[in-house]
Amino acid sequence: MERILVIQLRQLGDTLFSTPLVRQLRRLHPAAEIDWLCQGFNACILRHHPDIRRLETLPRSAKPMTFARLAARLRARRYDFVVDPQTLSKTAILSWLSGAPKRIGFRRPWKRAFYTKTLVCSGPEYSATRRLRLLDDPRVDLQDTRFDFFVGADDLAAAQTFCKTHFDRPVAAIYGCRSEFTRHWPPENYAAIGDRLAKSGFLPWLVYGPGEHDAARHIASLMRHPALVEYPLVSFPVLKEILSRCAVMVTCDGGPKTVAVAAGTPTVTLYHGAQAVAWNVPGEPRHRVVTSIFDGPLATAMRERGSEVSIGTVTDAPTTSEIPVDAIWNEVEMLLDHLKRNADLLPSAIGRHPRRPRSSRLRDLAIRHRQPHPFPPEHA
Predict the structure, then answer these.
(1) How far is CA 276 from CA 132, 294, 335, in A?
(2) I need a surface site. Which of 185, 209, 210, 315 has the fewest CB within 10 A?
(3) pLDDT per position as a tens digit, 47-56
(4) CATH number assigned to the domain covering 3-133
(5) Contact 19, 149 (CB under 8 A)
(6) Between vectors from CA 173 to CA 379 and to CA 151, what angle results, nearest 5°?
(7) Which of 164-168, 310-314, 360-364 has the highest average model confidence (pLDDT)?
(8) Which one, of 115, 35, 132, 110, lies nearest residue 79 by Cα?
């Protein structure tokens, strides 16, 4: 194959879940030109990817003429293969209009006619693995699900400046600004977790996205200990580099959690039932989950710590908002214990270190690239 197009228009997390496709395509087709069609909002995730030749963008509310011109450009490039992990109506139509002889997407109502082959989804599966199945090649490594998120020098410098300005001790990130039924957890619960982290020696950093600053401030107002919440909104590439310097993140499901996984930051995530199976890294003790109640073989496997599913706790809570604070905190403590016991498997910043003068120690914490902070003395 000489020319390949990946179509993933939107959603920060979904874009990261699709990045293993590019790595596998490059491995299978070393000489191919790989392009990606996205929307402008998530182009920042892909802009510095070394294996993507061209980024093509489609505005979210594109007018018919804009859509037609894009379709003409795609057709003129004569792609050999189009893979569409999103499989929306507009992406299915663009796949068909590209004229590629091989077009693969998921099997969805009425969209099969736009593809040469569709993949039937049979039961819950980790989303990154399912997307790799779209490549329709037995040589694909379905275990190679690491996210790729390359950043530029300006973003790296901005993250270093942020850390120098705001971080004066080991940092625990908290993201709890979602209000959807399947993602909501009361702000007072996040505040309670933040206070426990502060008592353990961490600086609680309340992460927020566009339009979410007030929600983060509300969590901070309910805390008894100070938290970092008053700072300018950062871009996603800068967020990724800042998160790479955090010891842990407690979060609901959402884009910032996926960025934390891309950054290598250990996480504890709240999920609504079996959604943990699709969206959390399976069998990885550095990415733990706490879910509302659900039944079946997958729930049993989670309770038995099966390697094919997420590691964590299935509670008896009927909804995400009713998950107990103690269930989250127990997983945080188990995560910190795991990181202590397996320091040899992690960046050298995690583990025991000889005490040094405070000024030099904090300076190193602020500028260390791609390494989480060391733990506070209680956890070292």
Answers:
(1) 19, 11, 17
(2) 210
(3) 999 999 999 9
(4) 3.40.50.2000
(5) yes
(6) 115
(7) 164-168
(8) 35
